């Protein structure tokens, strides 16, 4: 999920990266300019990036209900499934990195076989109906098998090209991704306990996985994390990639939305941040959206 194919890598390196260098981002929209407007936070409401970027509700009334009114709506099945699939994919990659670090290089390929066993605790799915439970288990197994082959291929490739490689070098070259990276977003007025899905190291890029349909606002999340990374490390992050993963009939397919984290999406994120924080800070009910989606966990509350 996190690793690019040779073609994708070529596209990023030969097209997107040169483009990002040509169309330079305005300095006031770089995360390190957090002390000055427009990045300096106007409200003292530390929200998560997902609360700002998850524009599934057109008026952000979901954030208002949760943060101001204190409504606790249980997540719908799609949300639970997305969370579990996410956790399974990230957990498998973390296990792969651990395996590389804790096994002698000579036996690492054998040790990686353990990745074929998916990580999904029964507790995680215990509350779901049996049919949904089976479906999720099937998807997690398909994802584990799919990723296992990609991980092993990458490790075997590095072992073949670098016969003297050690454990640290092997992990860095074969699995150059940080998953579930904790980030402190306080310079931008955000929560100090953010977690980015993944950051790819060799082509610095924020990666976000989605298990549902494509939406234009998904790019807001990659922009938000890029701004936070820039505010913390003062290094430019110009690229984002939202990977849409679909598992059907045991088959895994992926579609990638590579994009530049340009002025437009940065501005969009900052405006969404300010607007959402204002609702919470000033107790403003934004009213219901004209297009409530059927899966919204607040549907009963808003219709009532
Ligand atoms: S039911 Fe509609 S208005 Fe209410 S939170 Fe959901 S999408 Fe927004």
Largest sheet: 5 strands, mixed
The helix-and-strand class reads alpha+beta
Number of helical regions: 11
Evaluate the radius of gyration.
Answer: 21 Å
Oligomeric state: single chain
Low-confidence stretches: none
Strand residue percentage: 5-15%
Give structural notes:
- The protein is an alpha+beta fold and 304 residues long.
- It has a single domain, classed as Alpha-Beta Complex (Lambda Exonuclease, Chain A), CATH 3.90.320.
- Helix content is 48%, strand content 13%.
- The chain contains eleven helices and five strands, in the order ααααααααβββαββαα.
- Strands 1-2-3-4-5 form a five-stranded mixed β-sheet, sandwiched between helices.
- α9 links the parallel β3 (205-210) and β4.
- α4 (77-102) runs parallel beside α7 (130-161).
- The longest helix is centred in the middle third of the chain and has 32 residues, at 130-161.
- The chain is globular.
- The chain starts with 5 loop residues before the first helix and ends with a helix.
- The chain binds iron/sulfur cluster.
Observed structural traits:
single chain, 304 residues, alpha+beta, Lambda Exonuclease, Chain A, five-stranded mixed sheet, 48% helix, 13% strand, binds iron/sulfur cluster
């Amino acid at each position: 999920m996190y690793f690019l194919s040779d073609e994708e890598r070529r596209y990023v390196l030969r097209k997107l990266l040169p483009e990002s260098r040509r169309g330079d981002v305005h300095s006031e929209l770089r995360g390190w300019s957090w002390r000055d407007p427009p990045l300096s936070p106007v409200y003292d409401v530390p929200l998560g990036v997902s609360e700002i970027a998850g524009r599934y509700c057109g008026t952000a009334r979901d954030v208002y209900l949760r943060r101001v009114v204190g409504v606790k709506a249980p997540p719908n099945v799609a949300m639970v499934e997305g969370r579990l699939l996410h956790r399974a994919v990230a957990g498998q990659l973390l296990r792969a990195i651990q395996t590389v670090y804790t096994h002698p290089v000579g036996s690492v390929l054998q040790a990686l076989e353990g990745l074929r066993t998916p990580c999904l605790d029964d507790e995680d799915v215990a509350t779901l109906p049996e049919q949904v439970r089976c479906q999720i288990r099937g998807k997690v197994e398909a994802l584990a098998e799919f990723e296992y082959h990609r991980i092993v291929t990458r490790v075997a490739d590095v072992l073949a090209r670098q016969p003297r490689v050690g454990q640290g070098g092997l992990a860095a070259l074969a699995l150059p991704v940080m998953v579930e990276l904790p980030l402190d977003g306080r310079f931008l007025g955000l929560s100090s306990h953010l977690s980015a899905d993944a950051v790819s190291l060799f082509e610095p890029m924020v990666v976000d996985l989605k298990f549902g349909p494509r939406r234009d606002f998904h790019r807001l999340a990659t922009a938000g994390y890029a701004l936070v990374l820039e505010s913390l490390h003062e290094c430019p992050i110009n690229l984002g990639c939202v990977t849409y993963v679909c598992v059907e009939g045991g088959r895994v397919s992926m579609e990638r939305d590579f994009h530049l984290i340009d002025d437009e999406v940065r501005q969009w994120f900052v405006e969404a941040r300010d607007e959402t924080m204002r609702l919470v800070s000033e107790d403003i009910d934004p009213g219901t959206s004209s297009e409530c989606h059927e899966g919204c966990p607040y549907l009963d509350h808003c219709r009532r």
